[in-house]
Structures are given as structure tokens and as C-alpha cells.
Amino acid sequence: MSQTADVRMQILEANRKAAEALRRRFSQEKTLVVNLISSPGAGKTTLLEATVARLAGKLRTAVLVGDIATERDADRIRRLGLPAYQILTGGACHLDARQVEGALARAGFGALDMLFIENVGNLICPTSYDLGEDFKVVLLSLTEGDDKPFKYPAIFTKASVAVLTKVDLQNIVDFDVEAVETQIRTLNPQAQVFRVSAKTGEGMEAWCRTLELALAAKRA
Ligand SMILES: Nc1nc2c(ncn2[C@@H]2O[C@H](COP(=O)(O)OP(=O)(O)OP(=O)(O)O)[C@@H](O)[C@H]2O)c(=O)[nH]1
Ligand SMILES: [Mg+2]
Questions:
Q1: CB of 198 closer than 6 A to ligand 1?
Q2: Which residue CA neighbors atom 21 of ligand 1 most closely?
Q3: Among all ligands shown, which has an atom nearest to the Cα of 73?
Q4: Ligand 1 test: best mutation among 46, 125, 167, most atoms within 8 Å of CB?
């Protein structure tokens, strides 16, 4: 094995241990944790704004956001009056479990029903890093093209939920929704796929209901 491959394995192994500790903690605290992954601009923060706004009345929610630079996304959530903490990766293209651990210690969210982690905008790097989440959600916007699941198979294989975002643009862009769903189901037959527009609200109810059911299952 090359030295680079060896170092990478050590990093992933250290991350796996940190993620396991987080998963034990979230399990004890009965907090549902969702890790959102997509390319830049697919609509992660917009979906979260719409999601936490809907759930906030009945559930204690908070958001951790990873970006290379700026507090912009955390500010967007805080503007809604909801707790958010920005993790600045300083160049890294993904979040790791130690960063999540450190951010939780500093954020002081208190007891939570749901914690959303918005990963750094990238369809590749975040795939390999477990953050102790209950499940990964991959977002694919209609403006990105309908060939993406087969071109970036790892994340579509690992994410148990896929959200096709910006479906309000369906009549403007050439995007074969059925073909994409077929690609996703070929890679992951168990995947749940949602068609959502955070702008119009289409699909939001089904997406939020799935989150609530997952929380109920975790508490059972
Ligand atoms: N038409 C339409 N535009 C949307 C929708 N959701 C998000 N957008 C737009 O897409 C752009 C990017 O949205 P963000 O939510 O910032 O995307 P993001 O994935 O958080 O981006 P990064 O954090 O930079 O990776 C913004 O201009 C949004 O207004 C949607 O449902 N419909
Ligand atoms: Mg964002």
C-alpha cells in the first residue's frame, strides 16, 4: 500500500471511531441526525430554511453548517430565529466527525429532537465521512443535469434519502425526473426519493413527514 493510501486509511479509521461515539450519544439523547450532501447550490440551505420553519413549532431543531468560508448559511437559519452554528473547514471539502463533536460543544444547543448537518457543497468528498448521522440525504437539483446519479454513484448508493430539488423549474430545464429516479433506485433499491420545491412548497409535506417518522422510530 502506498504511503498516501495508508494515511488516508488512518484518517478514515479515526473518523469512524469519532462517528461511532457521536452515534452513541445521539442514540442516548434520542436526537435524529440528518447529514445533507449535494454539490454547491443544489439548495441545501433553502431546503433547511423551509424544513426547520415547518418543524420548529413542534420540535426542537438546530442546524450545523459546514462551509469553506463565511457564516452566511448559519446566518440564514438564525434569521429565522432558530439555532445554527457554522463550521469553517478552512479549505477542506467535507466535514468530519471531530469537527461535529467540537461544534456541538461550542454551540450549546441543549436537548434536541432533530439536528441537521449541512455538509460542505461537494458531491464527492463528504461521502466517505460518517458524522454519526442516522442517514445521509443527497440533494440533486434539476439544473444539474439528469445524468448525475450514475456519474457520482457513491453518494447515491450511500444516501438512504434522495431529494430532487427545484422541481418548480421542471418546464424550464431538460431534466428527466423518471430517468433519474431509475438511476437512483438502480444504485440503491431501498432509497426514498422526493421531488421537492422549497420555493413553492411542493413535496415539503412528504419530506417533513418522513423526518418525523424517522424520529418516532428512533424514539420507539
Ligand atoms: N427555483 C428554485 N430555486 C431554488 C430552490 N431551492 C433553492 N433555490 C435557489 O438555489 C440557489 C442556491 O440555494 P442554496 O440553498 O443556497 O444552496 P446550497 O446547496 O445551500 O449551496 P451551498 O451551501 O453553497 O453548497 C439560491 O439562489 C436559491 O434561491 C427551489 O426549490 N426552487
Ligand atoms: Mg448552503
A1: yes
A2: 41
A3: 2
A4: 46
Q: Are 22 and 100 in contact (CB under 8 A)?
A: yes
Overall number of domains in the chain: 1
Taking Cα atoms as reference points, which of 150, 146, 131, 219 lies closest to residue 188?
A: 150
CATH number for the domain spanning 156: value is 3.40.50.300
Which atom of ligand 1 is closest in space to residue 120's alpha carbon? 25
pTM value is 0.97
- Domain housing 111: 3-219
Measured in Å, residue 45 CA sits from the centre of ligand 1 at 7
The response to whether residue 45 sits with its C-beta less than 6 Å from ligand 1 reads yes
Span 45-94, pLDDT tens digits: 999 999 999 999 999 999 999 999 999 999 999 999 999 999 999 999 99
The secondary structure of the chain, three-state, reads CCHHHHHHHHHHHHHHHHHHHHHHHHHHHCCEEEEEECCCCCCHHHHHHHHHHHHCCCCCEEEEEEECCCCHHHHHHHCCCCCEEEEECCCCCCCCHHHHHHHHHHHCCCCCCEEEEECCCCCCHHHHCCCCCCEEEEEEEHHHCCCHHHHCHHHHHHCCEEEEECHHHCCCCCCCHHHHHHHHHHHCCCCEEEECCCCCCCCHHHHHHHHHHHHHHHHC
Q: H/E/C letters for each residue in 92-107?
A: CCCCCHHHHHHHHHHH
